[in-house]
Specification:
The chain is an alpha+beta fold and 96 residues long. It is built from three helices and four strands; from the N terminus they run H-E-H-E-H-E-E. It has a single domain, classed as Translation Initiation Factor IF3, CATH 3.30.110. 39% of the residues lie in helices and 21% in strands. Strands 1-2-4-3 form a four-stranded mixed β-sheet, with helices on both faces. Helix 2 links the parallel strand 1 and strand 2. The N and C termini lie close together (12 Å).
């Protein structure tokens, strides 16, 4: 579980990254979840974009994907989602 300092640190890091995936009308498909899972292992911190034609709210999409990838939702702002999962070989050093 992330504390407020860690969440703020990750939000700051997420401002400079671009979204790696777009969630569209089909929602969070198994193929998309698998690619996000691989990206989380490689990068630890990923940003997603929820398109306007997606029928689910961004918060629900974030919870669904984080549950399937065993990651944590850092933030949901508008239609952008930021997820974090610590890798086996961590690249990010989180504050205590």
């Amino acid at each position: 579980m992330l504390n407020s300092k860690q969440r703020a640190f990750l939000r700051g890091k997420a401002t400079s990254i671009t979204p790696i995936a777009q969630v569209g009308k089909a929602g969070a498909t198994p193929e998309m979840v698998a690619s996000i899972d691989q990206a989380l292992e490689a990068r630890e911190l990923v940003k997603l974009s929820v398109l306007n034609n997606c029928e689910e709210p961004a918060e629900e999409v974030a919870e669904k994907i984080s549950g399937r990838t065993r990651s944590q939702v850092v933030q949901v702002i508008g239609r952008k989602i930021v997820l974090y999962r610590k890798a086996k070989k961590p690249a990010l050093e989180l504050p205590k």
